[in-house]
Design brief:
It is a single chain. The protein contains 2 helices and no strands. The chain starts with about 35 loop residues before the first helix and ends with a helix. The longest helix is centred in the last third of the chain and has 16 residues. It has a domain of about 40 residues. The chain is mainly α and about 70 residues long.
Amino acid sequence: MTTKKSGHSPGSSRPRTATTKAASTEKPVALTVKVDSKTYVRLCTLGATQRRTNQDLLKDAVAQFLDRERA
């Protein structure tokens, strides 16, 4: 059995993304945060009472923090 070789790497056929895309169209980047069990339970409880996900709560909290710090 013969394999067909191409002159490029397998990932190079993907279109490159522009670095000047608007923030609303950028692909999100995963970020892991480790917290103690007490904080986790508090976060889950707040999320359940407000019907919001942990991700939504944390995104809002980080945005508020960065706004305060002007980072």
